[in-house]
Specification:
Blueprint (H helix, E strand, L loop, with lengths): L2 E13 L4 H9 L4 E6 L4 E8 L2 H12 L4 E15 H6 L1
């Protein structure tokens, strides 16, 4: 029986307000990223849906290394397990 998992994470990314649009575009170029909100003060809410936890930490590092990003922090992380064999049978 094969068990798979999905990691759902949310991040808050604080950027220089004048760079909000550029940083959002760069984040959306990364696989498995969605933006669910922003503020004029330069805060962006990012949601990740990935297959493993390593991708979450790698993405945080990549976002932190973007020009004009002040800080990125993990707000929420949930792991959902499901049986891929059962889904294939239905």
């Amino acid at each position: 029986m094969a068990l798979d998992e999905v990691h759902i994470s949310s991040l808050v990314v604080h950027v220089k307000p004048e760079s909000l649009a550029a940083v959002k575009a760069q984040i959306l170029e990364m696989p498995n990223t969605e933006i669910h909100g922003e503020s004029k003060e330069g805060k962006i809410i990012v949601v990740l849906e990935t297959e493993n936890q390593g991708y979450v930490t790698d993405t945080i590092d990549k976002i932190n290394n973007l020009e004009d990003v002040l800080i990125t922090f993990l707000v929420y992380h949930q792991i959902e397990h499901f049986d891929s064999q059962s889904e294939d049978d239905s």
